Amino acid sequence: MQERTVEENRDNEWLWSEYYDAFPYFTEQNVRKGCHPRKLIHENTTQKAIVLIHGLSDSSYYMLDIAEYFHKALGYDVYVPLLQGHGLEKPEGMKSVSLREWKENVRFSIRKAQEGSDIVSIGGLSMGGALAFNLGCVEQGVNGDVYLFAAAFGLASGRIPFGGKLKELLLRLPFITILEPNSSFIGENPYRYNRVSTHSAVELVRLMVENNKMLLEIEKGRDFGKSLFSAWSESDDVVDTEALKKLKNVLPATENTAFEILKEHEVDHACLVLGKSVFSTSVRPGDQPLEQANPLFCEMVEAISRHDSKDEFCE
Fold first, then answer.
1. Edge-to-edge strand order for the sheet containing 146-149?
2. Which end of the chain has fewer CB atoms < 10 Å from its terminal CB, N or C?
3. Contact 81, 60 (CB under 8 A)
4. Whole-angstrom Cα distance, residue 299 to residue 295?
5. Distance of CA 225 to CAs 49, 249, 252, Å?
6. Cα distance between residue 163 and residue 171, in whole Å
7. SS3 21
């Protein structure tokens, strides 16, 4: 299949092999094909770079369509880390993952981005968006913009009133990890796990608690100091989209771009960042994708381009 050939070329061309030296719990052998950390670098020095962070249970693959746009259309160097415990052939329950180590993965990427560019932005999907916001607030190396894609500032409630808050409270209980399911992590999707680890969900909630404190500080007058782009879908049943809507009130309109996809388009959580659909490992001609590409992907990246151009005008 032609799509497979394209993916293999992207995998080989953009592999970030130095990442394995910094984080030896990853190797080219123990990471699933297509899930490797990536970097998209121009031959000549570029003024701007961006670090793009994947979400919980998935891998760097999910940020590649966005990464390619930043690289080819906007001229950025792009760094896409692989977060500890993700994208492995043998995940082993993700029992060793920690928020502290995820932050180290991202900080390493920020430092590498600084080496080649004057302006470093940061962005991410879901938990990756939460990490992008968090480190965008505290890391001096991030002196560009923050790009959030269905960022996890809270969990979706579903059909239960305040169900998201209830899930967050349960995940803060000290014994919750004993309830880890026994089902396999590896399924038909080649680029994400079959389910979310309880251990990793506990670390996500810790991150959300940190971010909520940061948001309160900003509301009280702390200078965020960066422009914000935030995209989400009304069909998202994973994160709290109401929390994302409230972000519009955190910054002045001139520094804040929101891109909301209406429910009628039926764009699921992780599909928001997909320019191409994801198919099963055992795909056959005529099979439907596991995750459908965002039908408004082009409109979304055009909104990113306008946001980026607005920053250049302001400079």
1. 38-40, 77-80, 48-53, 119-125, 146-149, 228-233, 256-261
2. C
3. yes
4. 9
5. 18, 15, 11
6. 12
7. helix
Q: What are the beta bridge partners of residue 155? A: 239
Tens digits of residue pLDDT in 199-218:
888 899 999 999 999 998 88
Which residue type is seen at 38? R
Q: Is the pLDDT of residue 1 over 50?
A: no
Helix (H) or strand (E) holding 60: none
Helix, strand, coil percentages (3-state) for the chain, rounded to 5, are 45, 15, 45
Task: Kindly give, in sequence order, each residue whose CB lies less than 8 Å from that of residue 257, ignoring residues fewer than 6 positions away.
Answer: 227, 228, 229, 230, 303, 306, 307, 310
- E-strand ranges in 202-299 read 228-233, 256-261
**Cα separation of 40 and 74, whole Å?**
12
Q: List, as one string, the DSSP characters of 28-48.
A: TTTBPTT-S-EEE--SS--SE
Cα-based distances in Å from 195 to 46, 170, 171: 38, 18, 16
State the residue for tokens 């940020």. 63
Q: Beta-strand (E) ranges in 205-296?
A: 228-233, 256-261
How far is Cα of residue 293 from the mean position of the Cα atoms in its chain? 16
Q: Is the Cβ–Cβ distance between 177 and 199 less than 8 Å?
A: yes
pLDDT tens by residue, 58-89: 999 999 999 999 999 999 999 999 999 999 99
Average pLDDT score over residue span 104-130? 97
**With contact defined as beta carbons under 8 Å apart, do 65 and 38 qualify?**
no
Q: Which residues contact 16 (CB under 8 A, 6 or more apart)?
A: 36, 37, 38, 39, 79, 80, 81
